[in-house]
UniProtKB/TrEMBL annotation:
Function: May play the central regulatory role in sporulation. It may be an element of the effector pathway responsible for the activation of sporulation genes in response to nutritional stress. Spo0A may act in concert with spo0H (a sigma factor) to control the expression of some genes that are critical to the sporulation process.
Organism: Isachenkonia alkalipeptolytica
Listed name of the protein: Stage 0 sporulation protein A homolog
GO biological process: phosphorelay signal transduction system; regulation of DNA-templated transcription
GO terms for MF: DNA binding
Domain Response regulatory: 7-123
Lineage summary: Bacteria, Bacillati, Bacillota, Clostridia, Eubacteriales
Alphabetic keyword roster: DNA-binding, Phosphoprotein
Amino acid sequence: MRVKEIKIIIADDHDLIRQGLRTIIGLEEDIKIIREVENGKLLLEGLNTHEADVVLLDVNMPVINGLDSLKKLKESDPKIKVIMLTIERFDSTIRKAIDIGADGYVLKDSAGTEIVEAIRTVYDGEKYIDKSLVTMLFDQMTTKDHQESSLLDALSRREVEVLREIARGRGNREIGENLFISEKTVKNYATGIFRKLGVKDRVQATILAIENDVESYYRKLYGEK
């Protein structure tokens, strides 16, 4: 168990959603809700007096919407972690949130365990995207044509293998076990992949991998599943 509690703020205009999150998080000894608000204006007004580690932020909120609130949060305190919590599955909304600086993107109908996993993941400095969203984005790519050349051409075979695993939502330890390499080696590969692709983190790498259909790319070059 963690020595330090993860302090979170819930920003959502639906009472039932806040109640559900309160129930889920109440089962976790290392996570504490320090504040709940129903719109972006209230969230931003009280930010300086509440030292939160993570904010669960609804995309669609009154007064100041989630994306605008996200931008202001990151401008005010770049270190604060923000997970976008939403029912929206539109890839354009996901992309906007990631571009602004969201640390995670989770669907409201996700299992409680996934929401808790997202909180702990972003608190530890990693990025998180809902596993069902990754599947959806991959499915969308099957209907799109792909260019002969790809940004993935800059990667070695092993780097493509690591990128596939990242895009599937797997952590460094699990990737290492699947590819029979150490967790440290996975981290080294990930750093090189991010540099070559011009991305900052795992979420951006995941989106880029999906946009370039890394699964089909790998099968086409190496003939393996």
